[in-house]
Amino acid sequence: MLIGLSALSFSYRCGLIGRGTPRAVSHPLDIEGVMALVSRAGLQSVEFPLSLLPDLSPGRLSALRERLTLCGLTPVADSDIVDVDTLRAHIPAAAMLGAHVLRVLISPVLEGYRRPFTTDWPAHLADVTDRLRAVIDLAAEHNIILAVENHQDATSADLAAICAAVDSPHIGVCFDAVNCLVVGETPYAALERLGPLIRNVHLADYETYPTPQGWRLVRCALGEGDLDIRRLFTMIEQYAPDVAYQIELIGHSARHVRILDDDWWQGYPPCDVREVLPVLRLFAQTMRLRDDDWRTPWERGAGEEQISLYEDQQYATSIAYLRTIGILPRL
């Protein structure tokens, strides 16, 4: 089982949040720093945004590939929202790094709240599909799989439809279990639908806090939250046994899923309420109270030392948990 780390677990220490503000980290981790975190934990892969690199020059990419090989690390590259010109640069860059998977997104939507972004979600999906078709031959030429993530916006049906429409072995899915919940699906149902299409997995956990509009999902270490990680591993091994897993502890801002608001549903087609009950039951199992403090250190306005420690501790606890359940070997 190939277990790795997504640099987005350290979005603060990598300088990806707070950039350009007084709250930015003073000495951001570069890709070498991220690789050191991966190697020290005995992991085998690393996922990172190509934007984390100073440039995509052939010399830099070749040198980084040598370092990755020397460290025994399989790279997974991240692009951004599907854009033809960007992907024409990122696909060859990912290949030069030795990556076979390039993660892409389909929208800037967060918290499953589609309506402010577009009133015609099917038209947006059709446009994204056309953009992916425009670069799929380039992906095939470089032996790159474009893995479309369910990034708090897309349902499993959306991703399955995109893959069917592009119809290529070089299109697939980057599966994030927590993000399924944000669009009203359980990760277990989504896995059954997407299994053969999954090419990369993001491992995260969350704590659930009820609100009048729905629930807030707050990042936490693997094994400390409300997701059934053992069940998730069992199902992924059943439906997508050869994929890589990346520890990607979710963002520093809680995700407020306003699934009980009529307005939230304006971005979705009508559905039978029985389709939503499984995820509502999962949310309702939380024992936390509405008045509990759900804020992360970032949201509480904490300083650099405390936020950095928060990321470090959650990563260390996640590694320890994966050793405890037998996913990683014990030291």
Features:
alpha/beta, globular, 3-stranded antiparallel beta sheet, 18% strand, 331 residues
Compile the SSE list and pairings.
Blueprint: E1 2-6, H1 31-40, E2 45-49, H2 58-70, E3 74-81, H3 84-97, E4 101-105, H4 121-141, E5 145-149, H5 156-166, E6 171-176, H6 177-182, H7 187-194, E7 198-203, E8 205-210, E9 215-220, H8 229-239, E10 244-247, E11 255-257, H9 273-284, H10 304-324
Parallel strand pairs: 1-2, 1-10, 2-3, 3-4, 4-5, 5-6, 6-7, 7-10
Antiparallel strand pairs: 8-9, 9-11
Helix pairs in contact: 3-4, 4-5, 5-7, 7-8
Verbal overview:
There is one protein chain. The chain is an alpha/beta fold and 331 residues long. The chain has helices at residues 31-40, 58-70, 84-97, 121-141, 156-166, 177-182, 187-194, 229-239, 273-284, 304-324, and strands spanning 2-6, 45-49, 74-81, 101-105, 145-149, 171-176, 198-203, 205-210, 215-220, 244-247, 255-257. α3 runs parallel beside α4 and α5 (156-166) runs parallel beside α7 (187-194). It is globular. It starts with a strand and ends in a 7-residue tail after the last helix.
Number of helices: 10
Q: Which class of secondary structure composition applies to the elements? A: alpha/beta
Low-confidence residue ranges: none
Please tell me what the overall shape is.
globular
Rg over alpha carbons: 19 Å
Q: How confident overall, as mean pLDDT?
A: 95
Strand order of the largest sheet: 1-2-3-4-5-6-7-10
Terminal CA distance: 17 Å
Count of DSSP strands: 11
Beta fraction: 15-25%
> Helices and strands, in N-to-C order?
EHEHEHEHEHEHHEEEHEEHH
- What is the subunit organization of this protein? single chain
Main sheet specs:
8 strands, parallel, barrel
